[in-house]
Amino acid sequence: MAINRRQFFTFSAAGLGGAALFGARQAHAATTSGMPVLKAPEPPAELHIGCQQMLVPGKSFAERYDFLEANGYDRIEINGGNWEWLAKNVDEMAAAIKNRNLRFSVTCISARGNAGMADPTERRAVIDTTKSILESAAKLGATGVITVPARKKIDLPFPELRERYLKEILPEILAHAEKLGVCLIMEPLNRNETMFLRLVADAAAIARDANSPAIGVLGDFWHMTAEETNDMGAFISAGAYLKHVHIASRKTRKIPGVDSEADNYVLGFKGLKLIGYRGAISIEAGYPKGVSDDQKRKLLAQAAALMREQWAQA
Amino acid sequence: MAINRRQFFTFSAAGLGGAALFGARQAHAATTSGMPVLKAPEPPAELHIGCQQMLVPGKSFAERYDFLEANGYDRIEINGGNWEWLAKNVDEMAAAIKNRNLRFSVTCISARGNAGMADPTERRAVIDTTKSILESAAKLGATGVITVPARKKIDLPFPELRERYLKEILPEILAHAEKLGVCLIMEPLNRNETMFLRLVADAAAIARDANSPAIGVLGDFWHMTAEETNDMGAFISAGAYLKHVHIASRKTRKIPGVDSEADNYVLGFKGLKLIGYRGAISIEAGYPKGVSDDQKRKLLAQAAALMREQWAQA
Known about the structure:
Two copies of one chain form a homodimer. By secondary structure, the first copy, chain A, is of the alpha/beta class. Chain A has helices at 5-15, 20-24, 61-70, 83-97, 120-139, 158-180, 200-210, 221-227, 231-238, 266-274, 293-313, and strands spanning 31-33, 45-52, 75-78, 103-107, 144-147, 183-186, 215-220, 242-247, 280-283.
């Protein structure tokens, strides 16, 4: 649609004939106002740059962590397999991170099952395997465990799914998470992956309803590019529930910077500063086809620099 | 849950044993940041206080408008009946508002039909009666027409309803609205009235997808009290799509001020200032039981003063 907002209202006034008289009249009771009073959050926001570990070229966890530590990263996102793979690899990861200026942010590890299905064994599997992931995350000192409430395949009506998720799935998982001191972090996806939970504000509303100190939400710039009207508004709605941020290039979901000027995160970073965010901003993305390991390392180093630069601008 | 966020993380560190070592380590790459850079919107926000006309005691439109004009209001919200009632009363309302420092904001008038039903005659009725309301609104020089996409009674699956709403319902209504120079304004409700559209950010996402200069969204403080985690975040997500705001007391949906200190709108008003909002903030609410017309007038005058005071604080 080529008509912008200002043109539309000019057009409206012209098209209304006599009625436009009302619109043109000045209102006596109006008060014109500039910026609102906004307070800096206490404590202030901190930038922590992270990356999914398996994105980093390397033969071992230690080799991958070496690179991140040397290139402006201080948070590692745990990925690489399912809940069983994670349990098997916890000790090796814990050993590899020792004596480094790095810490684990969250796990991005698939549970089994599907909370969106009427079949109770599907929902039971989500609870059991998520609890296992939480235990591994606790052993690694991670902040939390990413979870996706539902994807495309859903046979429960949405209102029933929401109700069951809150009353049947979350309580048992969150009781376990509270004991372990680890958060369960719900990730909204874009419409190609789910219609159930697409907006950060909606995840925050579920988090509030769940009423547990162990619940949190994730904002993923990739999904937000498709779904949110305003990155700053989304992060403000998440507020203290925001425990993790994913970042990728905004056109093709590659390493930030690959899509050049489209990869602007400044408005979102303003929101993170406003809420005093101190979690990780962590890369979950792919590489352009056929790049070498050396090129991958260069892209990761540039991405960290880009985030730092845009954080300063925000 | 009595544990607050800070206590939770203290507890986490204590409970993790060896793993807590990772958490306690200082991150070398962190940048601590205060407030973001935010620009004042241009043009700046304006406060326009409105009220549904039938809330005002009076025997005629003119008598109701007299009161509003004399008591700090400059916007009238059109309510009082269905689309047929509206068409019949347009001339009388237009005559009553002449030569006043008042203008019509929006209509709050029920259409017939139900967009959430599989029966196509239900969806057809929504389109036809909404177009009639748009025509009346245009004659009155109103900004827009409030619509509720779906309420409790829905037999379409939610993803199909959203798709049909965007592809089948909105295009014909919006083409008509564009010709008339009037906006169609979608109102999210709270969960007791619908599960389909509850969040301002979700309405804004539909508005963006609809891609028309004649689409807008409404933020109603009453529904927002139940559904939003942050009034400011919600309004920022609405941005330029925000065309109308409803206001009521925040515990019992009465005239603002009736619920005393619960009736705080300052955070939301900050959001309105940030987006340069110039639409109406309009009362849609009830009265406490048994109040006289004199008491009603007093409550309305006090509500306008309360809004003005909190706007100044925001």
